[in-house]
């Protein structure tokens, strides 16, 4: 417990046993309310992956506090950062046997997508079957053979991202450098998840989905080479703007919806659609790309039951533990559209438990005056997304909704 002050300091040390270098730690910061029967308030949370460190490594990081429900309220911005110092001891990797020169050459694995130009006409909802990606396997190629690594673009608790330039084409990319799961003890599930995510991304080619160009591996690291996007998160733009004008919101979300039509036609569900996973490729902020397929999964009908996603954007059926499919992405799409148009989420409450109860009960409205200037057509689309699973709009149905149809008519004039 810390007394009221502007920059509180916790003089606490905690020890954890880390079974995998992808173990996740979640830290929540709360403001206590000593009034009788009053609720404490969550100020923010951070999620940290303990990855990529060797014995004795010590790192000092700043993490931005995030609480999706509170941050979008007009009178409450992101509340600051939390400083965390990590120190690792007795970090164990698999003991690698001595190898011959010939064997050592086989350590390097390389998967690459042929860098063909994406033609939006071939990835539209009308010609969705015509876009497929070609994958090449080259077991001994190193990342240095293909890319010139440049400046560091960012870093986190488990990886760093550097700018990379393809030596043959000159195309710039973002190279995420992380520990190689193949060389970590008890990391079979993480390796399976990594392979599933990269496998899905390799199969996709759509102008509103970030491209995966290459994956390289060596004895210590995996290098994931992605399309370079430089315009930042939709989350930050919502915080900066407070809300979007209806026309601008519609233009941005139509591209996102087209990506969902494309994914769902292929029986792929994203499962973590939120403003942080929608990025602007350029500083013009006129189009969005869907990123982070870590929770994405193939599905057939409503055959999934995993509890995954970000609570404020999770569909009721996930929270209730019911079977689900691609329809959960449409729920998240509706929540994001709602937030963009007014600056706060549809489901509110004094604490997270109340918010989740309201989500499961579908308790939301369009309060005045924030929604007075928003069209009834937009509200109807959102209501169609924030509906029970069996009545919810599909991505294809939403694309045919009058709100988006109006945008199509204007673009043809």
Protein described:
- The protein is of the alpha+beta class.
- The chain folds into 3 domains: 23-87, no CATH class; 103-227, Phosphorylase Kinase, domain 1, CATH 3.30.200; 234-412, Transferase(Phosphotransferase) domain 1 (Transferase(Phosphotransferase), domain 1, Orthogonal Bundle), CATH 1.10.510.10.
- 27% of the residues lie in helices and 21% in strands.
- The chain has 12 helices and 15 strands.
- It has helices spanning 68-71, 101-105, 143-146, 188-202, 234-241, 246-265, 316-319, 327-342, 352-361, 376-385, 395-399, 402-412, and strands spanning 23-31, 41-50, 58-64, 81-87, 109-113, 135-137, 147-155, 159-166, 172-179, 212-217, 221-227, 268-269, 278-279, 289-290, 297-298.
- Strands 6-5-10-11-9-8-7 form a 7-stranded antiparallel beta sheet.
- A hairpin with a 5-residue loop joins strand 8 and strand 9.
- Helix 6 packs antiparallel against helix 8 (327-342).
- The radius of gyration is 23 Å and the shape is globular.
The portion of residues forming beta strands comes to: 15-25%
The overall strand count is: 15
Report the C-alpha radius of gyration, rounded.
23 Å
Cα distance, first to last residue?
62 Å
Unreliable residue runs = 68-78, 90-99, 103-107, 113-138, 409-413
Look up the CATH topology of the largest domain: Transferase(Phosphotransferase), domain 1
SSE arrangement, N to C? EEEHEHEEHEEEHEEHHEEEEHHHHHH
User: What's the helix count?
Assistant: 12
CATH architecture of the largest domain: Orthogonal Bundle
Number of domains: 3
């Amino acid at each position: 417990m810390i007394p009221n002050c502007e920059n509180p300091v916790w003089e606490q040390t905690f020890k954890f046993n880390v079974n995998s270098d992808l173990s996740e730690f979640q830290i929540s910061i709360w403001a206590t309310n000593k009034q009788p029967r009053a609720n404490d308030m969550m100020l923010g949370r951070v999620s940290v992956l303990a990855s990529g460190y060797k014995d004795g490594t010590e790192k000092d990081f700043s993490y931005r506090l995030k609480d999706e429900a509170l941050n979008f309220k007009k009178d409450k911005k992101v509340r600051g950062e939390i400083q965390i110092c990590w120190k690792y001891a007795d970090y164990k990797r698999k003991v690698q046997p001595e190898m011959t020169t010939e064997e050592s050459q086989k350590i390097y694995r390389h998967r690459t997508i042929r860098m063909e130009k994406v033609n939006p006409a071939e990835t539209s909802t009308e010609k969705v079957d015509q876009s497929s990606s070609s994958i090449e396997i080259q077991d001994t190629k190193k990342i240095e053979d293909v890319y010139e690594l440049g400046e560091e673009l960012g870093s986190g608790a488990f990886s760093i991202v550097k700018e990379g330039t393809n030596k043959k084409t000159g195309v710039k990319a973002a190279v995420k450098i992380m520990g190689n799961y193949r060389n970590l003890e008890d990391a079979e599930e993480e390796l399976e998840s990594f392979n599933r995510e990269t496998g899905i991304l390799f199969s996709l080619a759509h102008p509103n989905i970030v491209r995966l160009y290459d994956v390289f591996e060596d004895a210590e690291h995996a290098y994931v080479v992605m399309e370079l996007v430089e315009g930042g998160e939709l989350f930050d733009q919502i915080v900066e703007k407070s809300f979007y004008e209806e026309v601008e919101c519609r233009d941005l979300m139509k591209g996102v919806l087209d990506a969902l039509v494309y994914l769902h036609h292929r029986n792929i569900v994203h499962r973590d659609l939120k403003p942080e996973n929608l990025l602007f490729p350029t500083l013009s902020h006129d189009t969005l790309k869907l990123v982070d397929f870590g929770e994405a999964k193939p599905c057939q009908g409503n055959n999934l039951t995993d509890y995954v996603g970000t609570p404020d954007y999770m569909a009721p059926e996930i929270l209730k533990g019911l079977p689900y499919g691609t329809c959960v992405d449409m729920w998240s799409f509706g929540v994001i559209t709602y937030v963009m148009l007014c600056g706060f989420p549809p489901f509110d409450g004094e604490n997270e438990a109340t918010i989740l109860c309201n989500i499961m009960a579908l308790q939301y409205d369009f309060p005045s005056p924030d929604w007075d200037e928003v069209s009834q057509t937009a509200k109807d689309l959102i209501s169609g997304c924030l509906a029970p699973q069996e009545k919810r709009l599909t991505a294809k149905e939403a694309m045919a909704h009058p709100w988006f149809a109006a945008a199509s008519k204007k673009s043809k004039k």
